[in-house]
Amino acid sequence: MEGLKNPNGRFDDRQDLLSRIEKYERKVIPSYEGKVHELTHKLRNRPSICTSVSCIDVSKRIGDFEKDSKMNPELDKIRSELKRAEEVIREKDNEIEAKNKELREMTNMIQKMAATFNTEMSKQEILIRELNDEVVDLRGQIRVAIRVRDYEKDGSNFEITSDNEVKFQQNGQSNVFEFENVFKPTTNQPQVFNEIKELIMCALHGKNVSLIAFGPTSSGKTYTMRGDEENEGVIPRAINFMLEHSRHDLATIGWQYSFVASFIEVYNDEVFDLLDEKKKIKITGEAVTSNKIPIKGMRDVNHLLQLADAQRSVASTACNLHSSRSHAIFQIYIDGVNKSGETIKCSLKLVDLAGSERAKESGAQGEQFKELTKINQSLSTLKKCIRAQKNKDTHVPYRDSKLTILLRDSLGAGSSKTMFIAHVNPNDVCETDRTLKFTSDLRSTRIGKATVQTGQ
Ligand SMILES: Nc1ncnc2c1ncn2[C@@H]1O[C@H](COP(=O)(O)OP(=O)(O)OP(=O)(O)O)[C@@H](O)[C@H]1O
Ligand SMILES: [Mg+2]
């Protein structure tokens, strides 16, 4: 049994012990037992004993011999070693069980700690996000996100480097562009909406909010804002979210809301009502006399969107089979009142701009060429307004186009929380370059802090 101990007098591990016991059982014991049987056999077959003693005597002698052999000190030693080994195994089993128990308790404790840590982390993340949002608010910055269409990555000079940054190489120079969100080609419609719904919520809290999709033709602006049957875009999702949130969470704290919507388009620098058989609308001062439809449920919304879809100016171009030839502005007017008589009166604008395009690529001629020129002119005025606002010029040329007259409140003349979603198709290097440069201007433009609109 000495061999089972290590130099510190402790027993080696259980496996070693078991293998030694097995060796005793397999080799030593059988060899002694073998000798006992051999001798017994010889004794039985000895003629002299067989003739001189009776069978009872023989078996007695055998029994005695076996008793003697049981008393054999070598076998006794083995037996006592086996007994001790058994005790040691039992001790080890108890030790292992105690360790297992300890381990189970530790695992439980670590799991509890990890859960608490995760909750704390997500609380911290939310807090950081809120603080970041507050900083952007206080600075009165325009928020900018980017949605990237699927593109050929081999040899591309465009790279998505994180959830907030993209890298773009042009003329041997590599620039990093920062965004509120980067929506990758794999980001789906619900995920896009999930990231911007906090902004939509601000409208329910009384702030004017604008979300504007821009970018070159065929980059996915209409897909993001309107979506298609299977993949609804921001407009239907935003209304659904507002209806649900106002009826449940906000109603429980005593707020009552009413919603009214309008949908207009700017086509060839003229304004048309998409909810009133495309009637031309005159803009007098700030007022827009478009049809306003009350919204009580999603059935109203779907009806309204179908009306607008049927009226919107769309054409097939070389770049996009269903290219929007107009800027579309969906606006939802929100009125809220709570039990103590506090009110809010604000609006949410969801804008799907027509895409910038080059005459050569789009193959535009005749009427389409005129449309394209007007689209590019209004987008250029929009950029000029942003630049003037960024440079804090005394004059911002809002009145130079119908589009900027309609969006002036979102671009700094009023109080608004504004987000642009830039759309790019990175394989179109030239347009990507232009779009990214414009996003830099947008990010550094201050439009003032959005305040709660009480309507009083
Ligand atoms: N992220 C996307 N995932 C899947 N399909 C998309 C995505 N973005 C755009 N598409 C598809 O690409 C096509 C062009 O998109 P869309 O019409 O939205 O472009 P656009 O930017 O509005 O163009 P235009 O300025 O000409 O109106 C559509 O068929 C649309 O369904
Ligand atoms: Mg479009």
UniProtKB/TrEMBL annotation:
Enumerate the InterPro entries for this protein.
Answer: Kinesin-like_fam, Kinesin_motor_dom, Kinesin_motor_dom_sf, P-loop_NTPase
Q: Which part of the chain is the Kinesin motor domain?
A: 141-445
Q: Which CDD domains does the annotation name?
A: KISc (cd00106)
User: What Pfam families does its record include?
Assistant: Kinesin (PF00225)
Coiled-coil segments: 75-141
Q: Which GO terms describe its molecular function?
A: ATP binding; microtubule binding; microtubule motor activity
GO BP field: chromosome segregation; microtubule-based movement
Q: Which UniProt keywords apply?
A: ATP-binding, Coiled coil, Cytoplasm, Cytoskeleton, Motor protein, Nucleotide-binding
Cellular compartment(s) = Cytoplasm, Cytoskeleton
Q: Tell me which residues bind ATP.
A: G215, P216, T217, S218, S219, G220, K221, T222
Question: Which terms in the GO cellular component ontology are assigned?
Answer: microtubule cytoskeleton
Family affiliation: Belongs to the TRAFAC class myosin-kinesin ATPase superfamily. Kinesin family.
Protein name (Swiss-Prot/TrEMBL):
Kinesin motor domain-containing protein
The lineage, from the top, is: Eukaryota, Metazoa, Ecdysozoa, Nematoda, Chromadorea
